[in-house]
Amino acid sequence: MSKPMVKKTGRLLRREVVQTLLAGRGDALVIGGLGAPAWDITSCGDHERNFPLWGAMGGAAMIGLGLALAQPKKKVLVVTGDGEMLMGLGALATIAVQAPRNLSIVVLDNERYGETGMQETHTAHGVDLAKMARAAGIAQTFMVRSEADVSRLKKRIYSGQGSLFAQVKVDPEKLPLVLPPRDGALLKNRFRAALLGADAAHQ
Amino acid sequence: MKKIAEPAWPDEVHALLKDAGVRQVAIVPDAGHARLIKLCEKDKAMRVVRLTTEEEGVAQLAGAWLGGEKGVLLMQSSGVGNCINMLTLSIACQFPLLMLITMRGDHGEFNPAQIPMGNATQAVLEAMGVIVKRADSGAEVPEMVSATLRLAFNTYRPVALLIGQRVQGAKDFRKLTESVPQ
Description:
The complex is a heterodimer. Chain A has helices at residues 14-22, 36-43, 60-70, 82-86, 90-98, 129-136, 147-159, 184-196; strands at 29-32, 50-52, 76-81, 103-109, 112-113, 119-120, 140-144, 164-169. Chain A is an alpha/beta fold. In chain B, helix 7 links the parallel strand 5 and strand 6 (158-163). Chain B is globular. In chain B, strands 2-1-3-4-6-5 form a six-stranded parallel β-sheet, with helices on both faces.
């Protein structure tokens, strides 16, 4: 990780942040929200324990909850975008009430709908997702703006001390797409085989 | 006030869900599901997850299956509209999903606002590719739950069982103005 994580503007770079968070991920399970976050997690290498989304906008955090409840001993990391999270804000309340210790939600907040022409989201106008998560009752919430913040966040994600929500302010850069496989059944089946073994096909 | 015997089907349905290994029970409440929800809450092998909107349940249960757990989504028909785009997940990835849906806007409805979604429930689910089955008496609910459980989890697709309003009876709001609701 010799590449700088911060642009000259002072904004964090999303791919470098994700690469840092996923380096040495061990057996962590990763959900990628549709659009740029799915390309970001894939930029670290297509991985059988990744579940990148091609749709289901607003559902990434809840997929993470169902997975975290089913696999309480595994770290579950949801990497998604501000637009995707804004579409499913109720999930913050649902997750806070369930409070799984092994679930982390990281929102890469570029304040834009990146896939549709970089239109501004509410976060460009002051909506603070981390405070909303805190108010919902999620135990640990972070606003992340610097490399030092990213290091702290990584430690917390892998320490597993309770549900965690982080809003990472990132530069609204346009990056080349790094596409995961598109076949949802393939993504699901290889994830389950990697996690549950060959028996997964006979559940 | 006339005492009405509690229906037996929720107990039978709870036993069927338990036997099938259902662990995650995602709910947006409906009066028709009240007893089943209570039974699931008392069951230590089940985790009841209250949702803010039904589409959360579709996503949650996809995650549950990724992690090797079965789940069920309990809701009323007015919540079906909230799920439509999220059902993409079940269709595109072939996730098993069982939705037990108590009908509103159906048999003898009092509330005009329940009619549009209730009337459209089956059509919109089928338009998305969900397999839809129906039970219109308490006696046939357990058999239909058993069948839809097998359909969903053996063939990897979203399946909805509509539990007709005839099974519960329609609420008459005028009567509720005369007494405290029970």
